[in-house]
Design a protein that fits this description.
Number of strands: 5
Strand content: 25-35%
Radius of gyration: 25 Å
Distance between the termini: 82 Å
Structural class: alpha+beta
Largest sheet: 5 strands, antiparallel
Order of helices and strands: HHEEEEHE
Number of helices: 3
Helix content: 25-40%
Length: 138
């Protein structure tokens, strides 16, 4: 038979008193929609093609970064067996990254990847897609 809310709450309260915890049981019901809307407004994602230059022969890889207001998380992805993750939180020492442009921020990511993981890479040049010219019908 399934416990009711009252049964589970009274059991939790009993355990708190039995083991002399100094906190009361709390009911936590987060608003998931609010959490995701905050993340979607404040989060930026970057995906860039890179060339890793200090791990043997130069190899192509992908850099994927999620930028949040007070931290960021990145991965250099070559394949399923070869990848590295790194991140950085805002501190007084590093000054945060909210004020940076996209290029300044990606340069910071490049610096942290080199310092934390020993991965040196260059951003690949973005080649504009050539458009087909249509011939005028005669």
């Amino acid at each position: 038979m399934a416990d009711t809310i009252e049964d589970s709450a009274s059991r939790s309260l009993y355990l708190c008193f039995r083991y002399q915890f100094l906190f009361a049981p709390t009911v936590f019901t987060p608003n998931i929609e609010g959490v995701f809307s905050y993340w979607s407004e404040a989060m930026q994602e970057y995906e860039r093609s890179i060339t890793v230059i200090n791990q043997g022969l130069p190899t192509k890889a992908a850099l994927k970064v999620i930028r949040l207001p007070t931290s960021w998380y990145g991965v250099v992805w070559e394949n399923r067996e070869r990848y590295a993750t790194f991140s950085q939180d805002r501190t007084d020492l590093n000054g945060g990254h909210e004020h940076m442009t996209d290029d300044e921020f990606l340069n910071r990511v490049q610096l942290v990847a080199s310092f934390m993981r020993g991965i040196d890479f260059l951003f690949d040049a973005v080649v504009p897609q050539a458009t087909k010219k249509r011939r005028a019908k005669q």
